[in-house]
Amino acid sequence: MDPLSARWTRRIERAADLEREIPAALELLRFYRAIAQFQQEIATAGLPPGPFSARPAQIPEVLRGYPGRLLLLLDRHAPAPLARAAETMSHADDWDPADPASRFVAKAVVQPYAEYCAQRCYTAPPHVRTSSCPFCGDRPVCSVLRPEGEGGKRSLLCSLCFTEWEFNRVRCPACATEDKDALPLYNAEQLPHIRIEACDVCHTYLKCVDLTRNGLAIPEVDEIGAVALDVWAAENGYTKLQENLFAL
Fold first, then answer.
1. In 3D, which of 30, 3, 34 has the Cα closest to residue 18?
2. CB-CB contact of 158 with 141 (8 Å)
3. Containing H/E element for 192?
4. At 193, is the secondary structure helix, strand, or coil?
5. Whole-number Å distance between alpha carbons of 203 and 222
6. Is the alpha carbon torsion for 43, 49, 54, 57 positive or negative?
7. Which of 232, 243, 187, 175 is nearest to 213 (CA)?
8. Exposed e or buried b for every residue in 187-203, given b needs 16+ CB within 10 A?
9. pTM above 0.85?
10. Radius of gyration of the chain (CA)
11. Could you tell me which residues come within 8 angstroms of residue 190 by beta carbon, excluding any fewer than 6 positions away?
């Protein structure tokens, strides 16, 4: 199996596992699996790499056949408000770039292509420490803690192309503060391998998926499943640095 196809298969399988582990997120994860299966087709279509944008009006020409197919899928599988929006979009010539539904469709179509382009075209330079993706410039959707020696090495994960790059263990990717006392961590007992990394200087946060505590986790999938932590963070005055595909 192609490595990129295998990666999408693991994401789909992980979402199914999390449906059983996190019942409160079951509907969201089930919807994610339907979207991920669609995205896997794009990722493995062998399209030529090229420039891309997730803006609704700038979907790459090589992807122009996919939005219509996604709208049909949304009509069958999406929550009712999104399904209604998809029906309206299917009869429109132009999409409102400020409309959450049009942004969702654009990102869902472009995301697997962006990852494909990153896998084909990007070689990470050593010691990258930027707060935005070194390949596509998008912001991170979460951080990842991977085993290294007797501890863990922190990296950031791009919300669009899923490029992962190293980042300082104690540093806010939004405002760059390194004041440890201003960077609290919050855990939930139900999700011991996922935590909130907050900043009390700029009041932003990211979720961190700790692979030293759960090696089966898939960061971009577990981040979606841990939606309860996003609710908690919002209730406590923090704003997410970058929303995921589902605007959560």
1. 30
2. yes
3. strand 191-198
4. strand
5. 23
6. negative
7. 187
8. eeeebebbbbbbbeebe
9. yes
10. 18
11. 22, 228
Distance CA 64, CA 192 (A): 41
Task: Please provide the average confidence, as pLDDT, over all residues in the chain.
Answer: 95
d(CA 14, CA 204): 27
Phi, then psi, of 208 in degrees rounded to 5: -115, 130
CA distances from 205 to 16, 173, 202 (A): 27, 9, 9
Residue 95 vs residues 37, 38, 57, 101, 196: alpha-carbon distances, Å? 24, 21, 7, 9, 35
What's the CA angle centered on 85, arms 80 and 87, to 5 degrees?
95
Pairing verdict, β 140-148 and 239-240? unpaired
pLDDT digits (tens, 9 = 90+) for 8-61: 999 999 999 999 999 999 999 999 999 999 999 999 999 999 999 999 999 999
Q: Are strands 191-198 and 151-158 parallel, antiparallel or unpaired?
A: unpaired
Residue 160 contacts residue 110 (beta carbons within 8 Å): yes
> Which amino acid is located at 151 in the chain?
G
Q: DSSP letter at 140?
A: E
Tokens of 37: 């299966």
Average of per-residue pLDDT across 186-198: 94
Q: Are 74 and 84 within 8 A, CB to CB?
A: no
75-102 residue pLDDT tens: 999 999 999 999 999 998 889 889 999 9
